[in-house]
Automatic annotation (TrEMBL):
PANTHER family: D-SERINE DEHYDRATASE, ZGC:162816-RELATED. Keywords: Lyase. CDD domains: PLPDE_III_DSD_D-TA_like_1 (cd06812). Belongs to the DSD1 family. This is Alanine racemase.
Amino acid sequence: MTDPAETTPVALSTLQTPCLILDETRMNRNIARLTERLATAGVGFRPHLKTPKSIDVARRVMPRPTGPATVSTLREAEQFFDHGVRDITYAVGIAPDKLARVQKLRADGANITIVIDNIDQARAIAALSDPTNPIPVLIEIDCDGHRSGVKPDDAALLCAIADILVPNSHLAGVLTHAGESYSAKSIADLEAAAEQERVAAVLAATILRGAGHACEVVSVGSSPTAHFAKSYDGVTEVRAGVFVFFDLFQAGINVCRIDDIALSVLTTVIGHQREKGWIIVDAGWMAMSRDRGTAGQAVDQGYGIACTLDGTPMDDLIMVGANQEHGILAIRPGADARLPDLAVGSKLRILPNHACATAAQHGAYHVCRSGEDFTHTTWSRFAGW
């Protein structure tokens, strides 16, 4: 898809650095890969918009301009609602003092659903929800011991939460997230995590239905499991987010390839420490984030892989260190590659470990296409909670 408001091409070499570069070709390919897979399987798709935080990206990944969509902050819900998105799931456990914002969105016309996993949340919702416009609620299920949620076989707690919600709010169903899929070491691990996620959500829904609750929604999702699930039996929708851009962490668990990564940070060479084998650039952890998620994988990518202006990775040149505004590039430890002779003022692109964390450091995407060293438009992004 081409942006209707394309601007005059701008050479990457002329941009102020550090800044965020988005390869639209790769992004569109990533979106097509997952949406086609889910369409073939006949399961609904509710993309997670927490990574892009941009209406321009959202419109390319959502099934329709009105959604459905998943968000991780109420700021995201409000921003996307202001741009016409109506069907929204806020997929973080609700804090009672945020319910007023939820009610405001619903009163304004948003069909926003919230997530809970305990009785205290349920009581707060039941006390504050307007029975003439009941807040839809999903019970979060802990499918793998990763973080939050009710155990899928804890019938007593599931039904207690559901019963408290009646009649002022509406139990819409269950939601789970296979967070431990990010620890997968093989394709078999990814497939097993996806099946464990599916089974947990379907079991919890079955228990609730047996107790008289309709439980229409059975929502699962993570980028790793969305790409490797063998069955969606009993599932009504899939959520995934980072797949739009991908990153080095996802490549490290075999969910994508390096050349699928659509996000990079443009940086400028500002100095050398030749005796140390270092190239110094102006993108530090403020531009890249401090995420070192690949350090626990088979290949440690430091703070990111260095690429040429057109996005081609350079032989074993990675960001080995990062201060607030300084990045240190060096040859990967143990590699035989030679340090390139890059003049001060040269510009490079750095592929990130974690697209969500890196994008969060920036206010806009400078959009290019694969193999190009110039941008054709700029898309804004927002932040906050």
